[in-house]
Design goal:
globular; Aspartate Aminotransferase, domain 2; 13 helices; 4-stranded mixed beta sheet; 434 residues; Aspartate Aminotransferase, domain 1
Amino acid sequence: MSQAADLLRRYADAAAPVIYRYTDLTFVRGEGVYLYDADGRRHLDLAAGIATMAVGHCHPRVVAAITEQARTLLHAAAHIGVMAPYVDLLERLRALAPGWLREGRGVLLNSGSEAIEAAAKLARYATGRPLLIAFHHAFHGRPMGALGLTASAAAYRRRLAGLLPGVYHAVYPAPHLPLGPTPEARGAAALALLEDALRTVVPPDDVAGIVVEPILGEGGYLLPPPGFLEGVWALARRHGFLVIADEVQTGVGRTGRWFAVEHWGLVPDILVLGKAVGGGLPLGAVLARRDLADAWAPGAHGSTFGGNPVACRAGLATLDVIEAEGLLERARVVGAVIVEALRAARADVPALGDVRGLGLMIGADVVDPATGRPDAARTRAVLAAAPRAGLVLTKCGEATLRISPPLVITREQAQEAVDALLGVLRQVSTPTPV
């Protein structure tokens, strides 16, 4: 029995089946954009730990920061005293943030989901209002509170009750919905439906805030139609509730800017981060307008491990690498190369549908060649074949390949990935998925 097969056998015996897994790959080592399995095979990583490993696997500067901090202080708890890495990271995030958030205040948690729940608590606490608005197709996490905001898959809510109360889910202008013939029309229709809900179902003066992903993540890597995000911000301002930007997946350079909201020139009242902010270690962050944060009384929230100094040092080193190696620009340039190459290949790859993205947050739809409709079966076939082609790949939405490699990926590595992916897509372009 191979080492990989043995590890899979042990996992199947010890681990509960609740954790969905895209592949049967077994990872033992990572370096840059590559992961190595237990049998020594190398795979080009297009998943980056679900958009987490921004500067790649085991970047020397990140490893050095973790090692140094581990030798100095592992944990002491922010509830007990002040640790320099906690303060350093908050100050650094604030310096990078847009608009009034540069004068804001924040708190560090253990994950993006935990940060979402903290942001929801802050919005309700600071405004004294009981309700929150979120969107269909959005993903904000799986814990019971964050799951109350999540609406990307009904399966996440199966057999559950008592999720976060006081949440209204608004229509998101997804392309498959009958909201209009153009993206602009869909966006305008979704905004009109939200306005109507505020007249008929949700009293505006009861709404603490609206939670929005600048680009839908789990919902399918969908970019908002032109004018939609601006309309959401304007609606919130008009009715006096807060905008909470969920940048757990889009933040820290993924889209070619530090934060995705910068593409639209927008500034949220509360910014939520996770994933890449910890440099590969568990970390989440909430950065809020100063007046909101100042209203959050001591004891209203807390976290034993939140802002752990080792995770904070990994996050700081990640920010250093992004700046020193020009990875925001690389994300924009290499991301455009991938999108252009995939779009150019659509003519002779019938299973490849729409390709879209900003920076290195790219979605590629898998479709039925006969109908052009999303094809979940072919998507599963692609995911099954990708490891054999030397790729680590995941999906989002109904049938969208999620392409989110580390930001350190080069043009040459990107072309290697595109060539391998197109080879897989050609295999599944036959009438019946292989």
